Amino acid sequence: MSNKDYTALSDDELEKAAADDEPAALYEKGRRMLADKDIAGARKFLTLGSVLGDRNAHAALAGIYEEEDNFEEAYELYALAYAKGSDEVLPRLAKLLMRTDRELGIEILKTNAADGNIDCLKELVATLSGEKEKKELKFWQAKLDALQPAAPDGTAE
Predict the structure, then answer these.
(1) Which CATH number covers residue 31?
(2) How confident is the model at residue 30 (pLDDT cuts 50, 70, 90)?
(3) Over 90: is that where the pLDDT of 1 sits?
């Protein structure tokens, strides 16, 4: 696998790289199709990229399955992406896990939020916002506020 940045390629150049079954090129082609709302085309290229082991393709394809309420397939793909080093999928993985084991999903968010994963911290605060116990929410909200830079208007971004 190459470390080439396919985002800068023209569509024609990307087409050639994807034809060579380069996983990252397949992901980028799928990502572009997804941005253009071509879900069927995106699924094709993301599936190929995923089969060839691209963690970004795993995550993007998982997002499609999640949108379609195919939570089992989405969970498996997010788990693959995470196993390959994609920490940014942890909040999605934990949220899907909460569908069957809420306590474990929240524990995953807490553990990773405590380790500084801001995306897990945001998801944890959003999850706890609906809870009756507000003391814990205040604790995690304070951590989030401390990590988020202030916007020019003084609010958190």
Answers:
(1) 1.25.40
(2) very high
(3) no
Number of domains in the chain: 2
Which candidate, 34, 29, 30, places its Cα nearest to that of 15? 29
Q: Which domain holds residue 40?
A: 1-85
Pair 5, 78 in one domain: yes
Q: How confident is the model at residue 27 (pLDDT cuts 50, 70, 90)?
A: very high
Residue 81 and residue 56 share a domain: yes
- Retrieve residue 145's tokens: 């506020």
Q: Is 145 exposed, middle or buried (0-12, 13-18, 19+ CB in 10 A)?
A: exposed
Instruction: Specify whether 21 is located in the same domain as 62.
Output: yes
Biggest CA-to-CA distance, the chain: 55
CA dihedral for 6, 9, 10, 15, sign (positive or negative): negative
Provide the CA 14 distance to its chain's centre, in angstroms: 23
